[in-house]
Design brief:
mainly alpha; two-stranded antiparallel sheet
Length: 490
């Protein structure tokens, strides 16, 4: 047992990777799904072991092939990435479980095994980005996840899915190019690719043009991957036209993994140096975050496509997360970290609810949900819970993270930040009311609401967790506080 636990950092990435080819070799829609389910379940169990182990040891270092860092490739786990690994692995399992029934309506039956192969590769890449302690391998794992993501987006039945995939491919390639150039410049400037080693070496470097250029390239590249305004243009189409399993999984995980790189590079590596403050990176992030919050909220209100409405909503929510990073104080960081969890849970559940309706109604127009409370009262009630969480209503997981962000904004002492956050909240209430009015105050336009039990169960589970972590936020806030304290002490 102790040997198994010691190998978890490698197993959590390698098991989805090795299971992926068996999905397509099986060429069977149920068997490929079952293989993916076993792989994601295994990764989730491993992530729990890893998270619990970190509570005792603080940091775990795993040397690949027993080649010690900084010469060898290191998997390095701490409070921050163990928390995010738990989120990613949970939603990998959640979306996979949901997809048993959902996927057959979303893509051609002959391509289902290809989908699950690509899905596992995407999970491998995202978990690899989080767990690796090597800068170049961040790029490698990012590309594994990106290449797989292009496939799981493009396999959608809607022809627009191909356009969305191609658009993401172009912008994703640009982002990857910026990141790999930045990593090359970091190596030239410091002589190392190990992140822990890098954090010590940058302390002694002042006014190095190559290092400053590397930071600029990293900022742009990560912003493209994280869909940070105005580099968000791939996200609305990718969420709107991809298969519903893809939307659920990506909305809960992909952008969070990219934002994780801001934490890792901005605080862990460059935090000890004076370069970040000299370049005013924090002020730039605040400015872009406020624009994202306003633009995303207004754009969401204008949409008639229900998936696109919540896709643009995600642009605004990403803005809230990055706002906490830019404010650079402990309350704001706690809010930002807890917001990643809250947004993953809330938006993942919302897209699962939307998927149940699309499965039955075969329609993504917002008017198709009219009178839902009379045809499917349970789904209507679950929608209400998640919409309240999106606003940040007390008693839901969305409240506590927004509360800490507001505290961080007050601590930053900027009236403009507080005003824009308040105005954006009004727009959020406006499009939530738009949805709620149709669900609860309109007459049904469609009656055919045959929803499989496995999809209902997934939606119920997500909504229960939204309420549970809203009423009992101790787990979330304690971990977010610990992580923000560690980051602020760098």
């Amino acid at each position: 047992m102790s040997f198994f636990i010691s190998q978890i950092p490698a197993l959590i990435v390698s098991v989805p990777l090795f299971c992926a080819p068996f999905c397509i070799i099986s060429n069977h829609k149920f068997l490929s799904w079952f293989i993916a389910l076993i792989a994601t379940f295994f990764s989730f169990i491993c992530s729990i072991f890893l998270f619990l182990n970190i509570q005792e040891n603080m940091v775990i270092s795993y040397a690949m092939g027993q080649w010690l860092a900084p010469w060898g490739i290191e998997f390095r786990i701490d409070k921050l990435n163990s928390f995010l690994i738990l989120i990613v692995s949970f939603f990998a399992l959640y979306a996979c479980f949901f997809g048993l029934k959902s996927l057959k309506n979303d893509i051609q039956e002959s391509k289902i095994s290809l989908f699950w192969t690509s899905y596992l590769l995407c999970i491998t890449g995202l978990l690899g980005v989080l767990i690796t302690g090597d800068a170049f391998n961040i790029f490698v794992f990012l590309e594994i996840s990106s290449l797989a993501t292009y496939i799981i987006i493009g396999l959608g039945r809607d022809k627009k899915a191909l356009y969305a995939s191609f658009q993401y491919l172009i912008l994703g390639t640009m982002g990857a190019t910026f990141i790999v150039i930045a990593i090359g410049l970091l190596y030239v400037s410091t002589g190392t690719l190990n992140l822990f080693d890098l954090s010590f070496r940058v302390k002694n470097i002042v006014d190095n043009p190559a290092l400053i250029t590397a930071i600029a390239f990293l900022f742009v590249g990560i912003s493209l991957k994280a869909a940070i305004f105005p580099l968000h243009t791939w996200l609305p189409n990718a969420y709107s036209y991809s298969p519903n399993v893809t939307t659920i999984f990506l909305s809960a995980t992909a952008t969070k993994v990219a934002i994780y790189l801001f934490f890792r590079f901005g605080y862990d590596i460059f935090g000890p140096s004076d370069i970040i403050s000299t370049l005013s990176i924090g002020k730039i992030i605040i400015f872009l975050s406020l624009l994202a919050i306003l633009f995303g909220s207004i754009a969401a209100y204008k949409q008639s496509n229900i998936k696109k409405m919540f896709a643009y909503s995600s642009v605004a929510q990403i803005g809230f997360i990055t706002l906490g990073i830019g404010l650079m104080n402990s309350s704001a960081l706690t809010g930002s970290i807890s917001y990643m969890f809250a947004h993953a849970l809330t938006k993942g559940t919302i897209f699962a609810l939307i998927a149940t309706l699309i499965f039955s109604l075969k329609d993504i127009d917002i008017k198709s949900i009219s009178g839902l409370v009379k045809t499917q009262p349970l789904i209507a009630f679950l929608f209400l819970i998640t919409l309240l969480s999106l606003i940040g209503f007390p008693g839901t997981v969305g409240f506590i993270s927004k509360w800490y962000l507001i505290l961080g904004a007050l601590q930053y002492k900027s009236i403009l930040v507080i005003v824009i956050v308040a105005v954006s909240s009004l727009f959020t209430i406006a499009y939530v009311w738009k949805i709620s009015k149709l669900i609860f105050l309109s007459e049904p336009t469609k009656q055919n609401l045959d929803i499989p039990i496995i999809m209902k169960f997934s939606c119920v589970l997500g909504s229960i967790l939204v309420i549970y972590f809203g009423i009992f936020p101790g787990f979330l806030i304690n971990n977010a506080n610990e992580i923000s304290s560690i980051l602020m002490s760098r």
